[in-house]
Amino acid sequence: MTLAYWCVLAAILLPYAFTGFAKFQGGFGPRQNHNPREFLDTLEGARKRAHWAQQNSFEITPAFAAAVIIAHLAQTSPQPTIDGIAIAFVLSRFMYGVCYIADWASARSLVWFFGIGCIIALFIGTSA
C-alpha cells in the first residue's frame, strides 16, 4: 500500500480524535453514550467546536479518498507527489481541527482552502 492510501485511513480516523475531545474533555465520558447526539448538541465552547470539526472532517473525507484513488488510477502525478499531497491534506485537516477548537476562524478558513487545494491537486496532478 502506498503512503497516500495510509493517509486515507488517517483521514478516516482523525474525526474520532475531535469527537474524543468533545466527549471526554471536562470529565464527561462514556456515561454520555446513551444519547450521544443529544449530548453533543448540548456542548458549548471548545467542545462544541470540536464536535463541529468532527462533522466537517467526516464530510470532506470521501472527497479526499476519491481523489487519492483517482490519482492512483489515472497516474496524475508521480507516486512521491501523490504521497506528499496526501500527507499535506491530513496535516491540514489536523490543523483545521486545532483552528476550529481554538476559535481561530480566519486561520481555519485558510487551512480549509488549503485542504481543498490538495484534493484538487490530486485530481489535476502535475503531469497534465
From TrEMBL:
SUPFAM superfamilies the UniProt entry points to: MAPEG domain-like (SSF161084)
Organism for this UniProt entry: Alcanivorax xiamenensis
Protein name according to UniProt: MAPEG family protein
Keywords of this entry: Membrane, Transmembrane, Transmembrane helix
Statement: the UniProt record of this protein carries the keyword Membrane: yes
Membrane-crossing segments per the record: 84-102, 109-126
Principal location listed in the UniProt entry: membrane
Location relative to the cell: Membrane
Gene3D superfamilies given in the database record: Membrane associated eicosanoid/glutathione metabolism-like domain (1.20.120.550)
